[in-house]
Sequence to fold (921 residues):
Amino acid sequence: MSIDIKLYLIKFLKGSKLRDRFMLYFIILSVTPVLILGGMALYLLDLAHREDVSRLEIQLIDQKIEEIEKFFSDTLGILEIRVDFTQKSFIPLESQNFILRGLMSENPAFMEASFMDVGGLIVNDTPTIAGNETSRISRKAGELELITDPIRFANFSRLRKFSEPAAGKNFIGDVYYTISGPRTTLAAPVRNGNGDIIQVLSAEVKLSQIVRSIKSARLGTSGYLVLIDKEGSLISHRGVGNIDPGTDLLGVSRVREVLDGGTLDALGERDRYLSFFESVPVVGAGKQIPKIKWGVFAEWPISDADSVIQDIRKQIVLLVLFSILTVLVLAPLFVARLVMPIRKLEEGVSEIEKGKFEKEVKIDTGDELEDLGSAFNKMAKGLKRLKELQEEFVFIDAHDLRAPVTVIKGYLSMVLGGDTGPLNDKMKDYLGETNRANERLAKLVEDLLEVARSEAGRIEVKLIPTDIKEPAVETVRELKPLADEKSIVISYIGGEEGLPNALADSGRFKEALVNLVSNAIKYTPEKGEVKIFQEARGGEVITHVKDNGFGISKEAQKKLFEKFYRVQTKETRDITGTGLGLFIVKQLIEKMGGKIWFESEEGKGSTFSFSLKIAPNVIESDSHLSLRAKSDRSRTERGNLKT
Amino acid sequence: MLKILVALIFIFGALAVIYLYLGVPNIYSEDYSELPIPHAFGDPARPIPEISIAAFYFVPQNKTNNIAENWKETLEDSLAKLQKFHSIEFLGRSKISYDIYDAPIVGLRESVAYDTNDTSMGNAQALRRASEEIEERVFDKNGDLYIPEFWVSKKEAYPVFAIMYEGVGSTGGVIYESGFELAGDIAKALGLPEGNIFIVDVERADGFFLINRLCLTSPSQCESGGPTLFAHEFYHTIGIPDEYEGKLQTSSDIMGAGRFKDIEETYLDKRKVKKLGL
Fold:
């Protein structure tokens, strides 16, 4: 994995508030409509599908109802005989037999037919008896058997198949179940030319035509119809369940509802249910056959009825899922494109904060952000010019200040030395104070000049292999009087034998060390201790300045190397200083390619350390070869590269 | 980042909700009650999910010359058709099994000792006497016709004797245990005419019926006959009454006018089926 990708990933995972916010808005704005559309599509699809299923089921049920009603209407129509004669007398036996034979021959659904006497007639001087059979014909093993022997005739006066037609009503009996299949009894009045009821004609009719019709009905590949009589008994169904014809289904609420005259349209809450027949979820509808009060039910296993819609549902959900994933993939790219210019601007600001004005922000979005980038670059150029002017100003001012300060110092020195004649004590005191103030001013000017040089890249260091032990010893010797004033024990405790030469500028090294040791003396109370020691470690020579002074608070430690920063505590309040010393030391050390750090604990003291690279062996310590220090851009641009 | 994660959780949650709930049917489930177990007519205390029939051809001593050669096939045919008919009418929830005693049982007495004088009631005395003799001779270990492995029926099955009789009459009935000794007292307790009650000493069966052999082998010689009459009489053993009085029919099913039809075309009507617990 390339470094760029790694960096991108790290940045991505680290995230940013703006990027996250953009991504959140982008995802919500993109995905919400997709979800809503997907949900609506599923809902509407389901709604339309349910209505389609309902329509199909109701259509099939209506078709069967029509067929069944037609069957009964036609069959009863056959039985509704009207004879031409007008006298109130039953049909002659021969004609009855003839009619019965004709009926049976023409209607294979008729298993038996018989004429019954309505009574109250005188035939051959004998009164007829209501309900008595007068003629009967049966179908047995495919053959017709006409019964003519009166001994074998029965009387049905107590049965509805006689009483209702005798009263003028057509009769449709209950469905009964024989070994050969379901049957029912139909009976109708026989009328003469005047419309008088002269006999009753009844027939036992097999319902195989209806059963076949119900069994042959299909909904999809596994949907079926169920026919139930008005008593709630199952007549026919094509389900695979082990439910026999004749089973009482009145215990099933749907059956009761339909037989009571209700209609189930497959759209109700309870129209998707576990089937009584197969114990599988089905979508069902049901209607009553108005004329005979039977119920026709459709049941369509949901797995079959919804098979098409399930595929479409899956496709819709997959499409929604795909859209969401696409949004999730595109969102970071889109947002990165949106945030990248802002990041570049942020980086530009960060560079300016570090004092680097040269880096241009490049934004090629072709919109307002690109304009903003251009404006930013112009601003950076303006700031750079401003800073250069400021540095020039400080440098020139400091330089110009140094001459009069030096002159004042010289003259004061001469006056105090007695060149202008003897001075009384008062004059000596006043002039002494003036001289010390002038020295502080001179120090301030020197520091300002050093800072100005540093910022302008004009600090010059000559990096050569240097024995850094000698300048350290000299520093201790030079600053001992200062330490003695506060009874501070200052010591160079040396370091390991054969300390290697460092790649350093001897003068700058000493300047930095003097600064650190002076600070240590200043910020250590009387009778304290300051130690300087050196060591070689990991290709570097490290110099430590350790004191047991006031120490530095955690808060102050963060700003310690900033310009003009001074630690202000009750212990350090009266200590004078410019606040530029440590800034200059840091600049000098870094200029020599080293690093500076410190450890400090308030009340216990501090240890300032700086490292310099060990001089390469190939370079002789007395060589005049100079190594070029790392130069910054400003110096490169100026062509002032000398170190 | 946390907000994005929360948003993603919501988005995929919403998608899951859409997939799992939108357009997915709620399946209504009705608690269908258990299918009822049939019982004897109007008597839920006598469940009849299984009925076991021991079938015999009983020939009075003086009628051995009339023994039909195909008696066993005839009996077998009637039983098989009854089995089928019963399965349909009882919706498969009551099953009949049967065993036919392998040889005709020749009575110890002549027919006059078995038959009643008036067979208008179907020769109930012949049924009573033949049954008692069969129990004594076939099921008693000391009986001359005892066969241990004959009719080892299930304990819970409703036991019935079916007797094809070489003689007149056809009848059937239920055998009840009774604390009474007189037919009149029993009739009073059951609310039945005294003429319908017969004291019988049969323990191996809860129901029994008798049918004239001639009505099975030559049905045309009887008013009704064949397997239909066989089934008709059998249904008396579970308490179903006749549905006719002379020519007057009070039902068109097998217990009424339907007894004249072939067994393939007759039925048990719904009023009776309901009283049988279905």
Remarks:
- The CA atoms of residues 356 and 384 of chain A lie 8 Å apart.
- The mean pLDDT of chain A is 85.
